[in-house]
Amino acid sequence: MEPQPALSGARVVLRTVLVIVAVVLSLYVIYLLRQPITWVLLATFLAVALSGPVRWLSRWMGRGAAIALVFLGLLALPLLLAAAVLPPVVSEADDLVRDLPRYANDAQDFIQRNERLRELESDYNVVARLEDEAQKLPNRIGDAAGILRDVGFGLVNSVFALFTILVLSAFILGSGPRWREAALSLTHGDRAERLRRVSDRMAQAVGGYVAGALCIAGIAGASTFIVLSILGVPFAPPLAVLAGLFSLIPLIGATIAAILIAVVTLFTNFPTATIVWVIWAVLYQQLENYVIQPQVQKRTVNVQPFVVLVAVLFGSTLLGVLGALVAIPVAASIQVAVREWWDWRNDSRPSPAADDGDADPPEGDGAGGEAEPPDGDGPEPAAGGPMPKPAPA
């Protein structure tokens, strides 16, 4: 009987080693599959965000037709943005190429008129060096072709990833409710109802956040377009789209867009346009932070500012800009789950009043629990009469 403890210890060691090996292999497989796993998570997030419009359209049409209509609108949105951005950009680029000789002549005349620049030219021979670099450009066509090839491969991969995410999200939208009900059928009673309520509240939080963020982005883009048009700043439509897209990034997106637009205003009616834009950007930031965003987000998600900051920091560290975009709805979903768990924990805990009510009642017949008088041989006293004397022994 002595070898049994040693055998039991060997089993424990073997089990521990196998568990560690299984965990390491699982983590390695997850690392290898990190890209498709990321696509699936993004598709799930997109499906949850689009579930609200699909559910609303399903009142008047079939769910498949509602999903198709929502995806058509989703695909039409970037086309509309491109139609607003590309024509002025192409026009201005064409004007720039056409006016380059004039800009070069103006620069040369300016250098000739400026004594200091003439001295720099004579000392460092800047124009000759620029001409030498220009002559070397044909030899660098191969490098440019390599860069364009890498950019093309990256663009193709991005389009493939986007198409895959859209297809996955369509499948999740179409079959997601059946999958959820199948999973909830494994549990019964109050637990299934609670899990259904948690999933509904998570979907509502994610969809509400996306709708609120798009609303804020639309307000930012429209106000930017109006102000830039009044100031006469070129590229007003593309800059308005830029402001709207950057406002989707929590905390810092609107500030970055304001700085980029301020740089553009430096070349248009400086310093008046720049000063007016900076004043407007500061005022709009205060209006958005204290009026627009609270009014929009309080109807959708209610996440504490500290949680927002931590979530954005974690998300941006893990996934960059994409992580910062999905950080707040993920934090809202986690907050919903934690609150539901806390409510369940408090409901399942027995109350002190219930414990006191379970105690045995005192013996007695009266409502107040008065005890019965002990049995005796003597007669009971009459109401208001004297106590009878005990019988002699």
Keywords:
mainly alpha; 393 residues; single chain; 13 helices
Tell me what you see in this structure.
The chain is mainly alpha-helical. It has 13 helices and no strands. The radius of gyration is 37 Å and the shape is extended. About 6% of the residues have low confidence. The N and C termini lie far apart (78 Å). Helix 3 packs antiparallel against helix 6 and helix 7 packs antiparallel against helix 10. The protein has a domain of 160 residues.
Q: Secondary structure elements and their pairing?
A:
Layout: H1 3-32, H2 34-57, H3 63-113, H4 115-124, H5 126-136, H6 141-184, H7 190-231, H8 236-246, H9 253-265, H10 272-297, H11 305-319, H12 321-348, H13 352-357
Helix pairs in contact: 2-3, 2-6, 2-7, 3-6, 3-8, 7-8, 7-10, 7-12, 8-9, 9-10, 11-12
Distance between termini?
A: 78 Å
Poorly predicted ranges: 362-374, 376-385
Largest sheet: none
Q: What share of residues are in beta strands?
A: under 5%
Average the pLDDT over all residues and give the rounded result: 76
* Secondary-structure element order, N to C: HHHHHHHHHHHHH
Net shape: extended
Structural class assignment? mainly alpha
Number of strands: 0
Helix content: over 70%
Q: Counting H and I runs of at least 4 residues, what is the number of helices?
A: 13
Rounded Rg = 37 Å
